[in-house]
Amino acid sequence: MPEVRPTAPVTGAVLAGLLAGYGVAVPVGAVGAYLVTLSARTSLRTGLSAALGVAGVDGGYALLAVLGGTAVARGMEPVADPLRWLSVLVLLGLAARTAVTATRAYRAREQPSASRPAETTPARACANLAAATALNPATVVYFVALLGARAGTPASLAERIAFAAAVLAASASWQVLLAGGGTLLGRALTGPRARLATALTSAGVVAVLALRLA
């Protein structure tokens, strides 16, 4: 009689979660672009906090998908459009804040007597990026559709938790990579004009990507 290996389904769920997590995280949209420029103009600690905020929402949505499935997707349908527009407004607000903060920082260098603008704290960065990610209902729909297309949809509670945890790990690893890249970019752009130009360019990119969601 062959030996039963109860961990095999869990391993399969982990692999599926990793693929799903990278699938939703790797395409760099407005949130990813903002994360890179945020890390470039602040610090690695702030960028990592924001990255974990994004990954936490991805993992939470994955857990919702495996626990609620199509019922969750149907429940979000009536509020999908309002959430999408709210997401657009949040992203546009973040883009505007990036441009204003960078401009004030540049002017403060030219006017030493002027007060320096307040830095974005790690907690605020985490909350901002988590909110921008959570307001996108397409994420949970993506996971529901993915699970529906898979023959081996996680069945047991252990498999479901393993799937969501793997999504969280995959998303976190990618977001941390973006934050680290942004920090390296910020170190390379040591001049105030270069930092201003980068921040304004990023704000424009985020704004354009946000409007494409509308």
What keyword list fits this structure?
0% strand; 214 residues; mainly alpha
Task: Write a brief structural summary.
By secondary structure, the protein is mainly alpha-helical. Helix content is 81%, strand content 0%.
> SSE order in H/E notation?
HHHHHHHHH
Number of helices: 9
Helix content: over 70%
Contiguous uncertain segments of 5+ residues = 111-117
3D architecture notes:
By secondary structure, this protein is mainly alpha-helical. It has one domain. 81% of the residues lie in helices and 0% in strands. The protein has helices at residues 7-25, 30-41, 44-68, 70-76, 80-110, 122-134, 138-149, 157-188, 192-213.
How does the SSE layout of this entry go?
Blueprint: H1 7-25, H2 30-41, H3 44-68, H4 70-76, H5 80-110, H6 122-134, H7 138-149, H8 157-188, H9 192-213
Helix pairs in contact: 1-3, 1-8, 2-3, 2-5, 2-8, 2-9, 3-6, 3-7, 3-8, 5-6, 5-9
